[in-house]
Amino acid sequence: MSFAALERRLNYTFANPALLQQALTHRSHSARHNERLEFLGDGVLNFVVAALLYERFQNIDEGDLSRVRASLVKQSTLADIAQRLDLSGYLRLGEGELKSGGFRRPSILADAVEAILGAIYLDQGFEAVRQVIAGLYRELLDKVDPDTQGKDAKTLLQEWLQGRHLELPQYQVVCIHGVAHDQQFEVECAVPAFDIHIRANGSSRRAAEQTAAGQVLEQLLPLSPVDIKRRQAAGKARQQAERLAQFKATHGRAAQGESR
Amino acid sequence: MSFAALERRLNYTFANPALLQQALTHRSHSARHNERLEFLGDGVLNFVVAALLYERFQNIDEGDLSRVRASLVKQSTLADIAQRLDLSGYLRLGEGELKSGGFRRPSILADAVEAILGAIYLDQGFEAVRQVIAGLYRELLDKVDPDTQGKDAKTLLQEWLQGRHLELPQYQVVCIHGVAHDQQFEVECAVPAFDIHIRANGSSRRAAEQTAAGQVLEQLLPLSPVDIKRRQAAGKARQQAERLAQFKATHGRAAQGESR
């Protein structure tokens, strides 16, 4: 197989194509597989992405740098890069993995990307692999918002509301389906200011809360500032109406109590 | 303060000594502190140690490479390197940290080592910092035994016994002192083949087991092959004697049972 198209997409030509061949070889295929290269590539990728973020974001602290980096080197991001490189067709897998669709599996794709980076480091050294990584990540880095990238939905929702001085979301388990080892949690996320109540399922309480928070965010984020103010106002009015109703109910009961 | 002695120990001279100054500045001292440099240095250290191990150990798999690397970049190893560099006297700490002995704290020392490596990368690039790291780790790498480095005491003890086809150690909680949030566990580790029974304490069951296993290893590792054979034989004889006694007791009881 010719590597020309892949090398073009990587913007890199191997001096020793056997290294690329090895990087594309899963352990199910043969003994000369890519796992050691993946170890090396994981290291260089983590470092180069750290250095790229360090240069680009001069004013964010190391906690934010770590969070953003984690989101850029995680398996799903690497699997996306593998798709862009059209790696599937180049992978060398054992028969079992082939039949079970291993060439589409995110872990196998992500590992192969790392292994290719390790192979480039061995092939032509640090500066070569730094340039390849910078090229692969150019668009992703342009889109990074260090305030939000890599944060989970619950954190983003909380920060969104806090930034507008609004009441925090409330999470509640509505019900739990299934038996001990295979439970499904149904959770409600309520945002009082916007009168939003959204339910979601998950295999853990936390997972269900994250899904619900994400769906709430999908409703909140597209809102225009005017919308937000209107819905804040509607929420406040509703709360006041509820308080009034509650007061009347209590007052009514008290009056009944007195009349007895 | 002159950095000459420190630079000599690092075998590196900064083009821009302000970077070294910043690397030695704890966040308690001033706003231009070392935490971002530490983020960068952590990345380059992890990668360079990975690359050094990859080159040196051609035949170990990525799992072992990861384990050995983790032991070489962990806080206590970095704090040892800081001691060798005599970093304490150069650290710039806030008053509170100074008074509480921050210049001796392993986390502060380890972070400063990483920050210095980040500073060297910014100062003169990858090849410069690679050489400094290779120099700092030369002796440590010469001593690495990839079969054992970074393994915990329980794992080492188990492997030592398995390698000699001996019965595995048995762990038992002897007693638990203290109340819920502040418990001390006393655990016994027994190695039947050597008739060893060692007790140790720890703030968790796991910690106590590790300490006990470590003390058992301290008894086993110095043994000569002859000693080992003799103690294996003694252990076997003891086991046989116990089985015989048990048989007699059962037989005795059975006889008594029959005679009733």
From TrEMBL, chains A, B:
CDD domains: DSRM_RNAse_III_family, RIBOc. InterPro entries: dsRBD_dom, RNase_III, RNase_III_dom, RNase_III_sf. SUPFAM superfamilies: dsRNA-binding domain-like, RNase III domain-like. One of its GO terms (cellular component) is cytoplasm. It comes from the Bacteria. Its EC number is 3.1.26.3. Homodimer. This is Ribonuclease 3. It comes from Corticimicrobacter populi.
